[in-house]
From TrEMBL:
Signal peptide (UniProt feature, chain positions): none
Presence of the UniProt keyword Transport in the record: yes
Protein family (similarity comment): Belongs to the glutaredoxin family.
Protein name, per record: Glutaredoxin-like protein
Key words, A-Z: Electron transport, Transport
Listed InterPro entries: Thioredoxin-like_fold (IPR012336), Thioredoxin-like_sf (IPR036249), TON_0319-like (IPR011903)
Gene3D superfamilies linked: Glutaredoxin
Pfam families: Thioredoxin_3
PROSITE patterns: GLUTAREDOXIN_2 (PS51354)
Domain Thioredoxin-like fold per the UniProt entry, residue ranges: 137-211
Amino acid sequence: MGLLKNEDKEYLKREFENALKNDVRLILFSSEDEHCIYCKETRQLLEEVSALSDKILLEVHDIKSEDAKTMGVEHTPTIVITDSDSRLGSRIKFIGIPSGYEFTTLIKDIMFISSGELEVSPETREALKDVNSKLLIEVYVTPSCPYCPKAVLVAHQFAMISENIEGVMIESLEFPSLADRWSVMGVPHTVIRNLDKGNVVQFVGAYPETHVINFVKDADEGKDVDMR
C-alpha cells in the first residue's frame, strides 16, 4: 500500500512538471537494523516521490558506507538533498522521516534546488555573503507542528546560499537523545552552532528570515544567545 494518495501523486506530478528544471538528488542513508524504526517508510516515501519525475534521482546508501562518512551522516534515516553536480554538497539534511507537515518541506526543497528560485530577499542573500564561520543550523521539529516547516525552510535556504552554513531538520520524537542535548520542549527549536568558535545561539519559534539572519550574524560573530 502506498503512502501517498493517488490524488496527491497526480497533484505533485503536475507541480513537478511545471517547476522542476534541473536534476535533484535525494540521497538516503538507511539501515536494516531493527532500531531504525522509520527506515523502511522513509525509503518508500522517497521512492514514491522520485517516481513522479525523472528529474528526481534517488540513491540509497548504508549508514556504514564511506559515503556516510564523507557526508557526515551518523543517524538513520538521514536524507541529503543536493543538486546533480553536488555543488551544494551535503549541507541540506533531514534526520528522521519528513512526515506530517515536514513532507511539505521536502517537496519545497526539491523545487528550490531544481529551479534555483528561492524565497529569500536580496538583502538576506547579501548578508549571508558575510558569514565567515562554519555554522550548523539544527531545527528540531515534530510532524504535527504546523509552524516547523517555515523554520526548516529558512535554514535549508540559508544553506543553499552560503557554503559556510549547513541546515538540518531533526525529528525530535524520533531522536529524543538529540533533542535532550538542548532541552527541547517546544518546537520549532533552532540551534545555531558555530563550529569554529564553539558558541551557540538558540531560539524557539518560526521567525521570519529577517530575524533569523540576525541570529546567524550573532552566531558568526561568536556570541552566545539563548532565547528559549
